[in-house]
Structure formats: structure tokens, C-alpha cells
Design brief:
By secondary structure, this protein is mostly beta strands. It contains one helix and four strands, in the order ββββα. The protein is elongated and about 120 Å long.
């Protein structure tokens, strides 16, 4: 007869899954490709996170979408596209003050005609 002390840990239950998060990155206004109206487009970041015991641990997928406020259509965006759209107006943060090249004038070696 074997010893039969009660032991724990015979089975471990893991509760895992995924959970989706939506973050609104910003609003931009441009002509919608679907309805053709210059409407506000909401740029959202959709993150799906792996959860263990209902605790989100790490993202498993990230995608960016833009949603038209006029017609409500959603379309996918690339990450750099979303970042570029939410970074502000194009060229606003462009550094200025660089001298324009091309205006170099040097001594010209012209022989006197004659
Ligand atoms: Zn639209």
C-alpha cells in the first residue's frame, strides 16, 4: 500500500484570453474616400492584448483604422500613416534657416576677348 498523503497541485487551471482596446489617436479632416465629403476622420489604434487571469500582459496585434464621421466607414491604416496623420499639419515642425545651396559665385576665368 502506497502512502496516500493528500497532495495539491495535480491540476492547474489557466484562464487566458484576449482583450481589445481602442485608443483614439486624434481627429483629422480630409476628404473621405467613401462619401467624398471633407469630414472629420477619427484615427484609432486597436490593440488586442493577451490576458492571463484577466490581466492584460502584452499586445498580440495592433492595427490602425480611420473612421469617417460623416458616413462611418472604417478603413485600415498603416502605422506610419497613422502617426504621420496625427503628428500635426505637414511641415509645421520643419526646421528652417538652412542656407540655400546653388548660389555659389567664384572667380571666373574669362579671357579678354580680342
Ligand atoms: Zn465618409
Amino acid at each position: 500500500m502506497r502512502g496516500s498523503a493528500p497532495r495539491y497541485g495535480g491540476s492547474v487551471i489557466f484562464i487566458f484570453g484576449t482583450k481589445g482596446y481602442v485608443t483614439v489617436l486624434g481627429l483629422v479632416t480630409f476628404v473621405c474616400g467613401n462619401c467624398g465629403n471633407p469630414a472629420a476622420q477619427r484615427i484609432e489604434k486597436w490593440v488586442t492584448k493577451f490576458t492571463l487571469f484577466f490581466i492584460p500582459l502584452f499586445p498580440v496585434s495592433t492595427k490602425y483604422v480611420v473612421q469617417c464621421a460623416m458616413c462611418g466607414v472604417q478603413s485600415r491604416l498603416e502605422q506610419d500613416e497613422a502617426e504621420r496623420l496625427t503628428a500635426g499639419p505637414a511641415g509645421a515642425a520643419r526646421p528652417s534657416g538652412f542656407p540655400a545651396p546653388g548660389a555659389v559665385s567664384g572667380p571666373e576665368d574669362k579671357r579678354p576677348a580680342g
